[in-house]
Amino acid sequence: MNVFYTDVLVIGGGLAGQRMAIAAKRRGHDTVILSLVPPKRSHSKAAQGGMQASLGNVVKGQGDNEDVHFEDTVRGSDWGADQDVVRMFVNTAPKAVRELAAWGVPWSRVRKGDRQVVINGQKVTITERDEAHGLVAQRDFGGTKKWRTCYVADATGHAMLQAVGDQVIAAQIPVRERCEALALIHDGGRCHGAVVRDLVTGDLSAWIAKATALATGGAGRLYRVTTNAVICDGVGMAIALETGVATLGNMEAVQFHPTPIFPAGILLTEGCRGDGGLLLDADHRRFMPDYEPEKKELASRDVVSRRMEEHIRKGKGASSRFGEHLWLDIRLLGEKHIRQNLREVWDICHYFVGLDPVKDLIPVRPAQHYTMGGVRTNHTGESPTLKGLFAAGETACWDMHGFNRLGGNSVAETVVAGMIVGEYIADFCDRAENDVAIPIGVVREFVRREQAGLDAIATGAGGEDASALKARMQEIMSRNVGIFRTGKDLEQAVDELQTLLAKSHRIGLRSSAPGANPELVTAYRTKKMLKLALCVAHGAWMRTESRGAHYREDHPTRNDAQWLSRTLASWSGDDATLPTLRYEALDVMRMELPPGWRGYGAKDYTDHPDTAVRQAEVEVTKARVDDRFARQRALMPYEHLLPKSLRGRNERIDERFPAPPTLPSDGLPESEFSWESE
Amino acid sequence: MRRTPIPVAPVMFVKPRRAPAGPVQAGQTLRLHVMRYNPADPASMPCVQTFEIEQSDGMTLFMALSEIREKQDPSLQFDFVCRAGICGSCAMVVNGRPTLACRTLTRDVGPEITLAPLPFFELIGDLSVDTGKWMRSLSERLEAWCHVEEEKIDLRRIEAPMDPDLADRIFELDRCIECGCCVAACGTARMRKDFVGAIGINKIARFRLDPRDTRSDAEFYEVVGDDDGIFGCMSLLGCEDVCPKDLPLQTQIAFIRRKMVREGMS
3-class DSSP state for residue B110? Predict the structure, then answer.
């Protein structure tokens, strides 16, 4: 048995995983990253349009700050988010952009003077300020009051991943590529590492660590049509679930992106609409203003996707031999803009559909895009039930997105959570009580069990075909657990998925070649994916309301009185066929922004009994306190939740720090701008 | 833990098949001639296996190979990740030419399609090669990261401005997806196993252009000023021909060569 020891074991080599690793390593902890693929190939790369951070450099971002970003994010989440975590996030996002700017990300920059942009279908000239020249630029995105999305053309995730990946190499952090964690090693209360399969040799090994951090991304491949990479099958979430101790939060909250190209499902960035692109129907008519007069094409993604499907149901979809779709029109942005700022979009249109978006309309239709749910953690990124297990990024539910994520907030979350959780992991490893102390017998038993599981698949004479089971699962999820959901469809989905889960115990292989054995990989992943699919479908069935991306046609309104809560799913054991669901209430009386109308989408909802009381309290405080920082602190103090090194305000053109920085020897800035002072 | 010796994917000399008169129509039969070899299996011998599938509308090599693995041969090895032409995982030799398989439409390269793994890189099996290990060691050799003055970074203050055009020019070179096509198409790499390839030169050009990187030409010369670096390039420029991201490799190679000659003579 191969056993490796390290202080920090990071599972997943995307932005969140790599950024956590850098934080832990810089604090002196031995850190190893395991990755399914070379880390620069991770799905973080697919983030095209940009990351939200309230820098307020462009003139259309003027007046932006943490408060506006906070409100946009909470409204976007349909009040499902943890507001403390959202506060931590919005205050760290500008720091993350600035760190990446220092590390070499070629952020697109502001050019002073006049420029022509497209807003609401009209060409408009705006004038950028002289003092903003050369600073990081922002573009418009859905569900935001200000232009806040920092970008590198439309390859933002790519550029970020290059820079962070380069820093991992500079920090000499080893990355074990083509490795997959099959199980977490734990004793019922403490996580000690993972059983890992080498995807080249097929060998198993055990990795023992003080802290184990999951950053394995989302589970888009539960669905037939998804923008997610083929590696996004949620195995990281599944191995947390399979501990029976860690829980998954809000798995029914699944985002469908409005504009993947049809029918391939490859993402075309929200930047297309942010930069002025329009959605047209079969008659080439712009329809979003009819449904959403306030935000039109730039309402939040859940709302736009729903409106698009609604419009298709009304018979307004364009027909093709693959089915119905709508059109994305970016022709009005002009060739120069498209070839420079939407270059990946041009490439995708050109290579996959053979059209030129400068001249042609692009066929689009909503497809699965993002997993808001994930491994439930507290604000430090640690599982509240399984000590030593951390999670960050799309894998995690800490919970900053609630029931709908805003565009540009996910790639921002990866690095922000990486920074924050990385510091907390380092704190955890600093404490002597968290040293590795696990009997090797326990480790051996975990490895034995995994090996036995694989052998049973490889040598078992079961007649079920893993690829077929997986395809069936994806079909059920897309058909019954999609944008529009009903109790009847969901019940049927749960029923069928349970049948598939039972069948998955009888998977047999056709090939037995030594080494990687891709068929075996499909087999064990499918077994895990079915459990996740059941968490999504069962959670969706039980949640008899509509909130964010979870839309129940039979319960079409948000019901705060009953459902202002987070779903927690756990898996009780090998024999279970359904997750066990519990609900964790959100405390309205602590909210800085009590529930209300989002500013787009449906206006009817049922209030929580505390909402009016809390709203009145908030009004009083707002009237009493002028200074925005003091007001925020009076409403919902959160700064103590951030690691010390990441506290402090963010400078802006319109919020200059008074004096040049003085950096004391410990590297922490002077207290002048810290939380302690006003 | 690893098996030895580790074979390198052989170069497959494939006589390019005559291009079809027009695109392959839906319903027509595609014949994929795939190089097979599983180094982990002592019984495996390198060979070419032919699979037949039906062309469908919009079919890419990603779809075709996935279908073959699902329905015909579950042991077939290949690497796809993003399937959108942005991650660089699926580079392989298609009809004699290194390219990204995921965005290659079968109608354009069929009906007879020859697939081989990228040469030069360590072979994992069939069409799968280990580019990651080579890329990491290249980055370590070239110190291919932005050498920044960490102590000067204050995350709370406004970022340092950068000329917008310069930022765009850096991005232009930063677009490399490390797919390995340029190295696979490189004549020098065939002869010098430690050659840094166009990707290596492009990385140097990218960091050299970036004012945030504190290194001087003297320091860049240390890592690429020899025959495994810029002076090994024979200017055959297969790299420029095959780069799926259309990076300006020819220009960058010429430019870095000029700068390094000057540095070497100073």
Answer: coil
Other residues' Cβ atoms within 10 Å of the Cβ of residue A512: 12
State the pLDDT at residue B9.
54
Long-range CB contact pairs, A622-628, < 8 A, 24+: A627/A678, A628/A65, A628/A67
Side-chain-facing half-sphere of A572: CA atoms under 13 Å = 8
Residue A178, both tokens: 């083509």
The 3-state DSSP class for residue A116 equals strand
| Cβ atoms of A223 and A193 closer than 8 Å | no
Q: Where are the alpha helices (DSSP H) in A171-285?
A: 235-241, 271-274
Cis peptide before B111 (omega within 30 of 0): yes
Contact A108 B171 (CB under 8 A): yes
Is A550 a known active-site residue?
A: no
A134 touches chain B (CB under 8 A): yes
Split at pLDDT 50, 70, 90, the class of B11 is low
Residue A257 designated active-site: yes
Q: Is some CB atom of chain A closer than 8 A to the CB atom of B26?
A: no
Q: pLDDT band at residue B85, thresholds of 50, 70 and 90?
A: very high
Q: Tell me: ipTM over 0.95.
A: no
Question: How many beta carbons lie within 10 A of that of residue A550, not counting itself?
Answer: 28
Measure Cα distances from A640 to A383, A392, A576, A646 in Å: 19, 20, 40, 11
Three-state secondary-structure class, residue B78? coil
CA terminus-to-terminus distance, chain A: 58
* Residue pair A231/A46 in contact by the 8 Å Cβ criterion: no
Instruction: Give the Cβ contact number of residue B160 at 10 Å.
Output: 14
pLDDT digits (tens, 9 = 90+) for A534-555: 999 999 999 999 999 999 999 9
> Which helix (DSSP H) or strand (DSSP E) does residue A56 occupy?
none
Tokens of B219: 């320091």
Calpha distance A249→A583 (Å, rounded): 9
Residue-averaged pLDDT of chain A = 94
